[in-house]
Design a protein that fits this description.
mainly alpha; single chain; 3 strands; 7 helices; about 260 residues; globular; three-stranded antiparallel sheet
Length: about 260
């Protein structure tokens, strides 16, 4: 029998039946050597009913695969809410470094103004106090060491403590405002204010006659004008710049508004 099958040849077998016959365990598919009747008929049912159910199952699987493909391709359409949130987070991350740079500029300007004022006062106290004034531009400008217990340019000498408190409040306000700073011109203006306020506050705290009552060292004496120092100059320049920025409608956060 085996010799006859070898001579006649093996009849064509469907791919599914051939795969079943070629399984490594050598088990043939149920229903005979040709693989017919591979699908079992449920108890109490008919083989004809199993066919449509199998076809329906295949169609359902194909539909599920199509739905999965559509759902996977959905992000390629309009921007999803998650993507919008990601874009917002990226924008916030881009804004934070810019804000930190503006804060760095503010404190750099403040440190420069404060150091320049402090060094100049140390030189004036050591070299000019109790000496004759130095004429810089004839009678128009001279350096003269004067102790000022009042505000800038010698005003309000009876309110030294009040001016000290005001200077401290200005420093705190500027420090709080720096968290929302995104404008370079505002950073420079606030840095000048902060450096000048720190310079005069240092004199109020550490110079005689006592803490919070110390006299500020002034030495720049233009003709026909009050004597002042570099801290006063920084405060005035910062204030003028703030007024100009306000007239232009530029806010510290970098936005521009028009009335």
């Amino acid at each position: 029998m085996a010799e006859a099958e070898r001579i006649i040849g093996t009849p064509d077998i469907p791919d599914g039946s051939r795969a079943a016959q070629e399984r490594p365990d050598g088990a043939a598919a149920p229903g005979g050597p040709n693989g017919a009747g591979t699908a079992r008929t449920p108890a109490g049912g008919s083989g004809a009913a199993a066919g449509p159910e199998g076809a329906a199952g295949a169609d359902g699987a194909a539909g599920s695969a199509g739905e999965r493909s559509d759902s996977e391709a959905a992000p390629a359409g309009p921007t999803a809410p998650g993507q919008e949130a990601g874009a917002g987070a990226a924008g916030g991350a881009a804004g934070r470094p810019r804000g930190r740079r503006r804060i760095a500029v503010l404190f750099a300007v403040a440190a420069f103004a404060y150091a320049l004022d402090l060094i100049s006062k140390m030189i004036v106290v050591a070299e000019l106090e109790h000496h004759e004034p130095i004429e810089v531009v004839g009678d128009w400008l001279r350096f003269e060491a004067i102790r000022n217990a009042g505000a800038a340019f010698g005003f309000g000498e009876a309110f030294t403590v009040i001016f000290t408190v005001i200077a401290a409040v200005v420093i705190v306000v500027i420090a709080r405002l720096a968290r929302k700073l995104y404008s370079l011109p505002w950073a420079i203006a606030l840095g000048l204010l902060l450096g000048g306020a720190l310079g005069n506050l240092t004199d109020r705290i550490f110079r005689s006659p006592g803490v919070f009552e110390g006299a500020v060292v002034d030495f720049i004496a233009p003709k026909g004008f009050a004597v002042f120092n570099l801290a006063d100059s920084a405060i005035v320049c910062g204030g003028i710049l703030i007024v100009l920025l306000s007239f232009r409608g530029l806010d510290p956060d970098g936005t521009v508004h028009k009335d």
